[in-house]
Amino acid sequence: MSDSFTPNVSSRITPRLHPKTNEVIPRVDEWFLHHWPFLSEAVYEEFKSSGPTLFTCYCMPDALDERLELACKILNTVFIVDDALENMSIEEAQGSCKKFVGLILGHEDVHPSTQVEKVFRDLHAEILKIGELGQNYCEDVVQWLKFAARDDRPKWKSSSDFSKYCEYRIHDVGYELTISMLRYAMDIQHPQRNDEVVRECEHLVGYHCMLVNDLFSYRKELASRSTGEIGKAFMNSVLVVQNSGGIGAQEAMVWLERYCEKLEEQFEGVASRTAHLGEDAKRYINALRLLFAGNLKWSSVCGRYNKL
């Protein structure tokens, strides 16, 4: 049965935690307690137990010490905003995302009217000051916000086109903003961003991360009861594979496990062709490799997916 089936995606890449993890997690948790307007102590405890800060520490183990904390705070707001959108109508989500975009870009006619909006604005103003990498991140989170509130999301609930689903979902989950934050956290300029081999590596990691998240979140999402249009438009590759193959949930999950393992093999094959691109590219490809392993490890242990 799918409700008792635990995903098991094997990997040859060993995940690593950032060395400052044990210091950063309590500091970030404490910061959110004092700056974010959680509705109750129970909501705050649920936020902590879901493990959002652990995500950044697993996925960016080589982040610069002085950049890790801001990276954690900002990506934590992405998790919170994503959850909030789940309980909104399409119209409400579009309005909220438009406001957030204005706050990020510093539009003169857009002002924060809530504590959430103020924190969101201040965090992005901080990363914007850092230079091109911070600006690139803000551009990518703006694109995600615009994509997250699209009104075509409900159609994917009954889709059977796995390839098109993946093309859509990789933008929906905010993969571009994740690797943009990775580059900021490690202070890596986007090496040969137009190089076909680098793009293929990014693409393979993105598919793997997105499908792993789908696999491990499937039981939780199936059991949850979102109240908004966006949340009710349940998007998950397990459903798409079921629809396309006429198979059950457990069979679909096993198929996806093997597919994810093939993606890792393909990545290593493509990555082996990047030696000529220089030291920055080598660092970046290795960071993507650790993102593979870190996201898989986090997905398998985090409260966000595993606490039913």
Automatic annotation (TrEMBL):
EC number, as in UniProt: 4.2.3.-
Top-level class of the enzyme under EC nomenclature: lyase
Gene3D superfamilies: Farnesyl Diphosphate Synthase (1.10.600.10)
Alphabetically ordered keywords of this record: Lyase, Magnesium, Metal-binding
GO molecular function, one term: metal ion binding
One GO term (biological process): isoprenoid biosynthetic process
Pfam families per record: Terpene_syn_C_2 (PF19086)
Cofactor(s) required for function per UniProt: Mg(2+)
Similarity comment: family membership: Belongs to the terpene synthase family.
UniProt name for this protein: Terpene synthase
Protein source organism: Sphaerobolus stellatus (strain SS14)
